[in-house]
Structure formats: structure tokens, C-alpha cells
Amino acid sequence: MAVVVGYTVGFATIINIPADYPNIQDGVDISLDGDTVLVQPGTYVENINFNGHNITLGSQFLTTGDTAYISETIIDGDSSGSVVTFESGEDSTAIITGFTLQNGYASSGAGIYCIDSGPSIVSNIIKDNYLMDDGGFFTGGGIYCENSNIIISGNKIFENSAGSYNGWGGGIACEYSSVVIINNVISSNLAYCGGGIYCSESNATIIDNLILENDADL
Q1: Strand partners, 199
Q2: Which of 35, 83, 150, 211 places its Cα 20 to 30 Å from the Cα of 49?
Q3: C-beta separation of 38 from 17 below 8 A
Q4: Residue 164 domain boundaries
Q5: CA distances from 102 to 43, 165, 178, 193, 206 (A)
Q6: For residue range 90-106, what is the model confidence (pLDDT) as tens digits?
Q7: How far apart are the first and last CA of the chain?
Q8: Long-range contacts of 22-27 (CB under 8 A, 24+ apart)
Q9: Is residue 6 assigned to a domain?
Q10: What torsion, rounded to 10 degrees, do the Cα atoms 166, 168, 171, 177 define?
Q11: pLDDT tens for residues 113-130?
Q12: How far apart are CA 186 and CA 19, in angstroms?
């Protein structure tokens, strides 16, 4: 089983960052469903919210297939919240692909936070994201999804932390969701429970992943 991101232009608009807009969020905000926001290599210190836009957000990896663009195109959350958020009913045509997502800091989903949505997260590096201890349970150092139908395919998810006390799902945490987790590398993540993956009350299809060297007490 494989999940493939198709790239078709059709009548959609391609919004180029930074040629058209200096910030990724500006491109997302101006976009319409079916558009592509195409990002050149560089480090973008931003916290991205898809805001209900069913678009493709991609680096030059999207058009070339060159995996070098994944590590060269960085969205840095600057420890100011989740790096990327889906919370407005986005569906599987809301795609993020070809980025390094790092330095998120939130109580849930420091790398990617997804609630009531169904995006496709394909071929990214998700690393060095951390959950804050807000006094309760905190979940999903790399990716958190709740009440969502989400595809997580072909990513490298490593060195994310949900904390060693009361943190759940260092790499990925899913609650009340239907999730496909396929062909990912999930390694060296930390949590109290579920160092690599934690799923609760969810329907999870987990196929052909490399899951290793994650750390958890439970």
C-alpha cells in the first residue's frame, strides 16, 4: 500500500513564496481550495494555520521529487506554539509535503496539531518539537490528532518529546481518530507513555513503518 501525492496544475493557482508573498501564512491566507503554495528553500520562522483551506503546501520537493529540498525548506515554530495547525475541517486534499517542521512548543501537537480535520501529511521531517507541561495531560510531541481522519505517510519523525511525566505519544498521538500511518521512520522520541506512537479510542492502520529507539516508561 502506498500513498501518493499527485501534482496537477489544472485551473488552480500556484502561489510562490517568497516571490509572491514573503511569508508562508500570507500565501495560505490568500489561497483558494485546490491552489498550491510552493515554497523556496530557506528557514521560515512561522506558525502555520491552514484555516480551512484545502490546498497543497509544498517545498520544491513537490515539483522535483528531490528529497534534498525537505531538509533545506524549514518551518521553525520558534517555541511559540504548534508549527502547523489543522482545526477548521480541512480534508485529505489539504496536504503538507516536503518540509522540515521544527521547534514547536505546545501542550498538544507541537509539530502538527490536528482536530476535527483530515489532512495528508506526506514526506516531511518532523523533529525537535516539545510539549509544555501545563499541569495536565499533554499529547503528541511530533503530531497530535483528535476526532480526525488523517494520513501520515513517508515522514521522518524523530527527537520529539512529550515529556517524561504525564506526556503521551512522543512521535504521534491519536485520540478518537481514524489514522493511516504508513512508510514512516519514527525514532528517538520521548514520552511517559507511547514513545513512538500512542493511540486511544482510535482506528489506526499502521503499515511498513520503521519504529525504533523511542523511549517511554509505559
Answers
A1: 174
A2: 211
A3: yes
A4: 43-216
A5: 10, 22, 25, 22, 24
A6: 999 999 999 999 999 99
A7: 30
A8: 24/48, 24/57, 24/75, 25/49
A9: no
A10: -160
A11: 999 999 999 999 999 999
A12: 34
In a domain, 16, yes or no: no
**Max CA separation in the chain (angstroms):** 51
3-state secondary structure the chain: CCCCCCCCCCCCCEEEECCCCCCHHHHHHHCCCCCEEEECCEEEECCEECCCCCCEEEECHHHHCCCHHHHHEEEECCCCCCCEEECCCCCCCCEEECCEEECCEECECCCEEEECCCCEEECCEEECCEECCCCCCEECCCEEEECCEEEEECCEEECCECCCCCEECCCEEEECCEEEEECCEEECCEECECCCEEEECCEEEEECCEEECCEECC
Does residue 38 lie in a domain region? no
Q: What is the reported pTM?
A: 0.94
Domain count for the chain: 1
Does any domain span residue 29?
no
